[in-house]
Amino acid sequence: MGDSVNSQLMAYKQLLGVTTNYHAEGGDGEVHFKPLSEKDKEFIEGALKETVEKTDPVKVLEKTLESLKEAEDKETKLMLIEDLVDLLGQIDLATIYVKNYHGLEDIKNGIINGDDTEIKGSYISLLTTVTHNNIDVQDLINDFSKEFNFLEYFLENYVESSTLAHKLRMRSLGAISAIVSHHTNNFTTFISLNGVGKLKNLLKNVKKNTELVERVKFSINSLKSTIPELSEDCKNKYASELSYLQ
């Protein structure tokens, strides 16, 4: 990041030098301009293009995604996913990523493919980031569930798993909370999948892991405070689960 900033500052200084060389105050007190040479025009155009590419969030997103697609080693992939997490904390940009750049498809593939725990965990964190307090992305996740249901996948393969790394299970809980928070359809899906019961069972089964126990309790409390508006039929059908969250 420091090298990028220094590069931009150097470009600005050169750009300023080129442009100021082409005007000067005449004896009449007026500023007279000389036409730029082709070489200097090319330099200015290049400097402006570089500035746009390094400061326009969408351009940065596109470049990061392209780099991630081409990356082969694990450390580079982790670094680039972390860059995405930092970048997509902006709600509008997160929505653009999910809607226009196949974000959910990429995240799904990152989670379900391969065996590397760190890569999977990073993609789960990315999902949590783009979904947190973002109703547009929550809606898109609900629509995407026809192709792939993140809630069902996490509940069956992470929450209920007794062999999975605890780090992954904790991150999946964060993603679940982000997906269902204040969202009627996603919350209803979660309850219909016996999500509350599965969290209760997880709490019973991991008593020896203090960190995971605290994370499960945090998730349950988060659910309690973010229950969305529900129909009367839904309230009656899932009265037991909802009473636990009251």
UniProtKB/TrEMBL annotation:
SUPFAM superfamilies in the cross-refs: ARM repeat
Annotated GO CC locations: endoplasmic reticulum
InterPro entries named in the record: ARM-like, ARM-type_fold, Hsp70_NEF-Inhibitors
An example molecular function term from Gene Ontology annotations: adenyl-nucleotide exchange factor activity
Highest taxon of source: Eukaryota
Protein's UniProt name: Fes1 domain-containing protein
